[in-house]
Amino acid sequence: MLSAQQLSQGYGRTIVFQDLDVEFGPGVTALLGPNGAGKTTLLRTLATVQPPREGQVVIDGRQVSSEAEARTARRQIGFLPQRFGFEPAMRVRDFVRYGAWLRGLPPREWAHASAEALAHVGLAGETGQKMKSLSGGMRQRAGIAWAIVGRPRIVLLDEPTVGLDPQQRLRFRAIIAGLPDTTVLLSTHLIDDVDAVCDRVVVMNQGEIRFAGATSELKALDEPSLPGHTPLERAYMSLLPAEDRDR
Ligand SMILES: Nc1ncnc2c1ncn2[C@@H]1O[C@H](COP(=O)(O)OP(=O)(O)OP(=O)(O)O)[C@@H](O)[C@H]1O
């Protein structure tokens, strides 16, 4: 179980969220919200990349309060930022092993763990290729392998389907659905993804949680008079103030 307790975060004088309380359990949760809602900042804070200004990130009842605790917590967290960097000439398998090293896996497990993660994302045949030679969709899948290597119990993905074509998005959904006993949190703008792959949804707007519950509960908030093509789109719109609906 991953939770934010009274969590506050910001940049300089900008307050992104304050006293935020939210909980994420096993299964796939979507973090939905318009541009600037604070999704990336929340993911980075939960991933312990950005220490909170106030409040706590709590993993399985244990507070992450110091850098030493954050280092321990990171062994259980796979985090894929929206734009992840890599050395273009690095081979795919070394890129994923590098993730294993970062997570603190013992060296004897690197080869097996990276082969397992690459097989999970359908890149078992590309392990010797250079990162720069991969297509956008394959690169994204290599990123997911990087995030899931060593089977972390918490996987945080920031806009993982941006730029993917429909076929690659279907593959992505299958990959995510096949991570048993894992708490997966993914930020997205794409409501189609939510319907297809997420058990739960958290809707955020201007640093506040507007909804947290099952996807089916969100759907039930459908308001046919609002803009949107599906019940879920309209339900999402119903949670946003009118001025934020076209962001
Ligand atoms: N490095 C930064 N320095 C200053 N302000 C920032 C920084 N990163 C984000 N912000 C501000 O914090 C707020 C939340 O941004 P954040 O990127 O977390 O939102 P988001 O929901 O992920 O948006 P998007 O969907 O556009 O990625 C915004 O007002 C943004 O301008």
Explain what this protein looks like in three dimensions.
Keywords: ATP-binding, Nucleotide-binding, Transport. By secondary structure, the protein is an alpha/beta fold. It folds into 2 domains: 1-76 and 153-217, P-loop containing nucleotide triphosphate hydrolases (Rossmann fold, 3-Layer(aba) Sandwich), CATH 3.40.50.300; 86-151, no CATH class. It contains 9 helices and 10 strands. Helix 3 (92-102) runs parallel beside helix 5 (136-148) and helix 4 packs across helix 5. It starts with a strand and ends in a 9-residue tail after the last helix. The structure holds adenosine-5'-triphosphate. Adenosine-5'-triphosphate is lined by residues 11, 14, 16, 33, 35-41.
* Lateral arrangement of strands in the main beta sheet: 6-7-8-3-9-10
N- and C-termini, Cα separation:
31 Å
Secondary-structure-derived class = alpha/beta
Q: What Rg is obtained from the alpha carbons, in whole angstroms?
A: 18 Å
Q: How many separate helices?
A: 9
Q: Give the count of structural domains.
A: 2
Pfam families: ABC_tran
Family: Belongs to the ABC transporter superfamily.
Keywords: ATP-binding, Nucleotide-binding, Transport
InterPro entries: AAA+_ATPase, ABC_transporter-like_ATP-bd, P-loop_NTPase
